[in-house]
């Protein structure tokens, strides 16, 4: 370096050096830096040898300087030439006109603490007129010589003499404060930029840590105060105020400050955001509890209804498989309640507190199933603006219900099988596999072997999922379930429409029993809901099945089975009990309506296991 810059930096109170990052060498260092680092010939020394294992941290620090134009750090450990550890604060900024060169200042924190302790014991004295003039000349000379370096620094720097008059300030200080050098030089800077606290209280100069620095030879670090700009706006700052000596004579103080307004505002917003998050979390927890209660209540209305042998078998198999994690394959025609069985398995499983994610393969276009099931990363090529998890990820820890599995393309079935077997899922456009912990339940409308023969289902996937098969029988194969299902669906429809529950006559029940029900329970629910609408103003259910269900032709049988007769008899007794509001014997009782003795009616009720809850009209 040339002699002028060497003299210029030599007077800087902080340890400073110029680092050539491309050559990993110290291009120049002032005396304070050479003493701190114990380098007899600092110029040309390799800086990386002082960093040791902290070199990666310093590289990140240098990248930050290149990106932001300035940076500081206290978490990069250094060692001196004798391999003694140093505790320093690094500040760096690019050197104008010298690519790859950084102006690096090192603040020895331990030395500052020792000096602060020593300064507290020093005697206080005032500089006389001659000292003040000498200090003024000293700072004026320092301002002229160090202007290049001071203006390159990212922090605001200004100096005051022993009388509190401003002697110099760098460009960063002028930009942050809005005052020019002409505005402040020679003036009491405290009365200009530090006169009031943020709350409006007056800030006396004798209470200012900056003035105590040169009056009591103390170093002060202040984390949060305000300086006042020329336009009257406050800025939050953190600063270090350090005494300055000229030939061991106290000449004043230098202040290095940083604008933390944006950081403080970001911290305030973060605290507010966290408070909002806490409030939203509490609200969501309350809403979740409410929704869980509502869901539980709703599921209570959709439990599996029926007492037929086929229904009891399904309930038994649910009870057997629910506590396990075994894959389940549910088969049955549309409308037989496959989704209801899947829900019952999940509800009774150890995974009940985690979600049941249902994915209906037939409801998505083939080219969309992959993204919906596996998720995808943000990609311009895929036209996605954000990362999105798939159904497999959403079901993590819970249950995945794959309805209409045979509608999934075969190549995706292979990828699904791989994800289930390896317990990992990879999103589209991503290379990272994510852990997967799910219980798989699949549903088919036809038996697996039929779908495999038709080329719609991979045999290896069917083998993996068909560990525990459950078959949902069609409604036509279990007519004894029609009366209780009718009562259940009728109660739900009337409650939903806020209407009184009409009676189901024997003739109406016979029509329901005689129909073949190709749409199964779903079709029965539609018929009952339509009948409730048509029964407005009527005591009995008005059934309208159009041309679908004339008496008995659906099965072509003129004779009912014993189970059908029993179901009809049971429904008839329930209708009589509803009409009499549960009265069995005596005038106006159900026995009189049925034309049988009360003792006979009691006997039949016991035989058919008729309970009081069954004839109680919902809402009645």
UniProtKB/TrEMBL annotation:
PAC domain segment(s): 220-272
Alphabetic keyword roster: ATP-binding, Coiled coil, DNA-binding, Nucleotide-binding, Transcription, Transcription regulation
Gene3D superfamilies: 1.10.8.60, Homeodomain-like (1.10.10.60), P-loop containing nucleotide triphosphate hydrolases (3.40.50.300), PAS domain (3.30.450.20)
Biological process, per Gene Ontology: regulation of DNA-templated transcription
Alphabetized GO MF terms: ATP binding; DNA binding
Entry-linked Pfam families: AAA_lid_14 (PF25601), PAS (PF00989), PAS_8 (PF13188), Sigma54_activat (PF00158)
Domain PAS: residue ranges: 142-194
Coiled coil: 267-294
Residue intervals of the Sigma-54 factor interaction domain: 304-533
Entry annotated with the keyword Glycoprotein: no
Name used for this protein in its record: PAS domain S-box protein
PANTHER family on file: PTS-DEPENDENT DIHYDROXYACETONE KINASE OPERON REGULATORY PROTEIN-RELATED, TRANSCRIPTIONAL REGULATORY PROTEIN
């Amino acid at each position: 370096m040339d002699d002028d810059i060497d003299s210029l930096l030599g007077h800087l109170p902080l340890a400073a050096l110029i680092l050539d990052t491309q050559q990993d060498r110290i291009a120049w260092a002032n005396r304070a830096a050479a003493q701190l680092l114990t380098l007899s010939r600092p110029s040309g020394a390799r800086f990386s040898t002082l960093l040791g294992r902290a070199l990666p941290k310093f590289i990140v620090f240098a990248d930050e300087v290149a990106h932001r134009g300035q940076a500081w750090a206290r978490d990069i450990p250094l060692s001196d030439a004798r391999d003694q550890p140093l505790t320093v604060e690094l500040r760096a900024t690019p050197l104008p006109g010298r690519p790859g060169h950084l102006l690096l200042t090192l603040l020895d924190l331990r030395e500052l603490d020792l000096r602060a302790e020593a300064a507290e014991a020093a005697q206080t004295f005032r500089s006389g007129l001659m000292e003040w003039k000498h200090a003024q000349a000293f700072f004026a000379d320092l301002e002229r010589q160090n202007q290049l370096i001071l203006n390159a620094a990212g922090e605001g720097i200004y100096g005051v003499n022993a009388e509190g008059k401003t002697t110099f300030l760098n460009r960063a200080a002028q930009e942050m404060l809005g005052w020019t050098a002409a505005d402040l030089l020679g003036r009491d800077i405290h009365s200009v930029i530090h006169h009031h606290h943020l709350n409006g209280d007056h800030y006396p100069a004798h209470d200012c840590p900056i003035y105590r620095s040169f009056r009591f030879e103390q170093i002060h670090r202040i984390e949060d105060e305000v300086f006042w700009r020329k336009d009257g706006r406050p800025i939050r700052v953190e600063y270090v105020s350090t005494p300055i000596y000229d030939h061991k004579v106290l000449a004043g103080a230098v202040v290095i400050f940083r604008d933390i307004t944006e950081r403080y505002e970001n911290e305030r917003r973060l605290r507010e955001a966290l408070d909002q998050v806490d409030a939203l979390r509490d609200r969501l927890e309350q809403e979740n509890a409410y929704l869980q209660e509502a869901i539980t209540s709703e599921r209570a209305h959709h439990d599996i209804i029926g007492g037929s042998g086929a229904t009891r078998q399904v309930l038994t198999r649910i009870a057997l498989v629910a506590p396990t994690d075994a894959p389940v394959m549910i088969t049955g025609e549309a409308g037989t309640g496959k989704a209801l069985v899947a829900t019952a398995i999940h509800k009774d499983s150890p995974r009940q507190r985690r979600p049941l994610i249902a994915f209906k393969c037939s409801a998505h276009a083939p080219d969309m199933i992959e993204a919906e099931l596996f998720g995808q990363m943000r990609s311009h090529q895929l036209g996605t603006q954000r990362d999105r998890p798939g159904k497999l990820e959403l079901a993590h820890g819970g249950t995945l219900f794959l309805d209409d599995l045979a509608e999934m393309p075969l190549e995706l079935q292979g990828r699904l099988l791989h994800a289930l077997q390896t317990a990992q899922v990879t999103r589209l456009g991503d290379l990272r596999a994510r852990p997967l912990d799910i219980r798989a339940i699949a549903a088919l409308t036809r038996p697996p072997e039929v779908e495999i023969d038709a080329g719609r289902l991979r045999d290896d996937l069917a083998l993996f999922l068909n560990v525990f098969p459950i078959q949902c029988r069609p409604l036509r194969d279990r007519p004894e379930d029609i009366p209780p299902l009718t009562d259940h669906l009728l109660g739900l429809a009337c409650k939903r429409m806020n209407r009184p529950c009409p009676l189901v006559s024997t003739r109406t029940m016979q029509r329901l029993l005689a129909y073949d029900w190709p749409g199964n329970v779903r079709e029965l629910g539609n018929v009952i809901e339509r009948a409730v609408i048509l029964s407005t103003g009527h005591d009995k259910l008005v059934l309208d099945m159009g041309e679908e269900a004339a008496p008995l032709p659906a099965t072509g049988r003129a004779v009912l089975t014993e189970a059908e007769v029993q179901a009809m008899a049971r429904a008839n007794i329930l209708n009589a009990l509803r009409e009499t509001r549960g009265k069995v014997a005596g005038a106006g009782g159900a026995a009189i309506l049925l034309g049988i003795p009360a003792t006979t009616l009691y006997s039949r009720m016991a035989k058919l296991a008729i309970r009081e809850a069954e004839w109680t009209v919902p809402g009645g």
